[in-house]
Amino acid sequence: MSPAVSGALLGLCAAVGLVLVATRAVAIRRPRLEDRVLPYVRDLAPDRRTPAPTGARSTAAVVFGPVLRRAADGVERVVGGAPSVRRRLARAGSPITLHEFRVQQVQWGLVGFAIAAAYGLLRTWTRPGNPLPLLVACLGAFACGVLLRDNRLSAQVRKREAAMLAEFPTVAELLALNVAAGESPVGALDRVVRRSGGELSHELGDLLARIRTGEPVADAFDRLAASTGLSVVARFAHGVAVAIERGTPLADVLHAQAADVREAGRRELIEQASRKEIAMMVPVVFLVLPTTVLFAFWPGLIGLSLSY
């Protein structure tokens, strides 16, 4: 093949690749329908259903889906704890169901099994031996993957609730200001949800959507108090429910709760600093102090060496 033909083929391949990359980049940058519509219907309850897979993902789901579902059922029978998992999924704000979470646990376990199996095969090729310990190690890696996904869910719950706790004083103050200005609790909640963002705002948006679909206001707040894992948010929901039922002043209660949360956060920060006092001294003792001593004595050492 002549150099001209080879260069033409290489140029054609490069041009086709660039066209494919540019086409995919344009498709990725194009806003989706849900991105354009959701900002105008954000007060409605989000659709908890996951989108249907397409392309290679749908093919993989058809081929491996039944096996994964049976494996997820087996994990459910062995591990158990379905009510706890459902509660943590709700507290984490996750759109997946319990069965989908079990499938993800199986997938994480299969990843751990594959890593352990690959290591076992490499070790068998270099040093053949009894395969039973390697099989036990693969099963242990599968169990570790399943438990790691469960631990990841607990970490997501803690992270989301920490964010909600940090947002609570501001949201409570905004609600108190709106109620003190003469708005109803539902109207104040609507205004705060539309003007704020964050995990607590999303939780209150779901609550507002349930109220607009016909659920009584007090029952909606009682449901929020029962489902949340934060005592502060539970007290807030109970206080709003009682205020709506009995007609008691709500602004003072919200101001007091916001002040209590800020004071609790300040105390927790002081306690963390006291617990980590030794760790805080490590950079001072091992980094700052040696540098200071070096700068103090280095000129003297240089002077002594020059005098000799």
Automatic annotation (TrEMBL):
Signal sequence segment: none
Kindly list the places in or outside the cell where this protein is found, as annotated in its UniProt entry. Answer: Cell membrane
Q: Does the keyword Membrane apply?
A: yes
Q: What is the species of this protein?
A: Nocardioides albidus
Q: Tell me what topology the record assigns in the membrane.
A: Multi-pass membrane protein
- Protein's UniProt name: Type II secretion system F family protein
InterPro entries, per database record: T2SS_GspF_dom
Parts of the chain that traverse the membrane: 6-27, 108-126, 132-150, 278-298
Coiled-coil segments: none
The entry's keywords = Cell membrane, Membrane, Transmembrane, Transmembrane helix
Q: Which GO terms describe its cellular component?
A: plasma membrane
Positions of the Type II secretion system protein GspF domain: 173-295
